[in-house]
Design a protein that fits this description.
about 270 residues; alpha/beta; Purple Acid Phosphatase, chain A, domain 2; seven-stranded mixed β-sheet; five-stranded mixed β-sheet; 14 strands; about 20% helix; hydrolase activity; Metallo-depent_PP-like; hydrolase
Length: about 270
């Protein structure tokens, strides 16, 4: 996290609505398939559905924007999301380990977002050349300081990797590796209401103390829940919405589009 970047402020006493998308896995060519589907067209269909069916004040992408982490893929993504004319934030995923990843440290892309009585903190859990996640020691120290600084706010944390096991044996080694330290930090601060992540390509909900841990569907392909080995699901792409209320409670829902954009390669064993 970069403390030199001032927090973005949304001063509002109404619910603040977030559109969470994740795991777009874009290719450099918009017509190139990934696991049998067209990831850019799938992302466009997800965003079109959200625009038509839900209200949102900002878009928050929880990582793996690109499958091919090259400038062309990130350009396609930014041009696509820009059309929605909403504030837009993102965190790095394990497939985004590349110098071409769009910077988070611009004035309009802060690591802290203040929305009424809520503080949203964006965390980097990406570790170079690793599928699994790790929040480095410096960032954990900064998180501790931010949670103290914003102790009078309700807090939502966003990162790519899941903190808790989602029930897929093959995914267990790929989750946040220092989750115990991360959870211990959260437990020292009673104001962390929710933690949202991506990475697992499926809906997940877990309650730990006062904090709710959530993941969302991918905008591209889905992983089969409760599978021992890598297995894709035939569920269509989707997204999560969150409504953050001034009193600290929140409402959330998962939404899916009507169909896949392409035919998922169900025989795929990895990617």
């Amino acid at each position: 996290m970069n403390q030199s970047v001032p927090p973005k402020r949304f001063d509002s006493q109404r619910p603040f609505h977030i559109l969470q998308i994740s795991d777009c896995h874009l290719m450099s060519d918009p017509n190139q398939t990934f696991a049998g589907i067209l990831p850019l067209k799938s992302l466009q269909a997800v965003l079109a559905h959200a625009t038509q069916h839900v209200a949102f004040d900002c878009i928050l992408n929880t990582g793996d924007i690109a499958q091919e982490p090259v400038p062309e893929a990130y350009h396609l993504y930014l041009e696509t999301v820009k059309q929605l004319k909403r504030p837009h934030y993102w965190v790095r995923g394990n497939h985004d380990e590349n110098q071409n990843f769009p910077s988070l440290n611009q004035d309009d892309h802060p690591n802290v977002i203040l929305a009424g009585n809520w503080c949203i903190i964006l965390l980097n859990s990406q570790e170079n050349h690793q599928v699994s996640g790790h929040i480095d020691g410096y960032d954990l120290e900064q998180l501790e300081q931010l949670l103290t600084k914003y102790q009078d706010f309700h807090v939502l944390l966003a990162l790519h990797h899941n903190t808790f096991d989602v029930g897929c044996a093959w995914l267990a080694p790929h989750q946040l590796q220092n989750s115990a330290q991360f959870v211990a930090c959260i437990e020292r601060h009673r104001n962390v209401r929710a933690v949202i992540s991506g990475h697992v390509h499926q809906e997940f909900h877990y309650q730990h103390g006062q904090t709710t841990f959530l993941s969302c569907p991918s905008t591209s392909i889905q992983f089969k829940p409760h599978s021992a080995e890598f297995r894709l699901d035939d569920l269509p792409p989707g997204y999560r919405t969150l409504a953050l209320y001034p009193d600290g409670h929140f409402e959330t829902a998962v939404h899916r589009i009507d169909a896949q954009i392409g035919a998922v390669d169900m025989e795929l064993k990895s990617y």
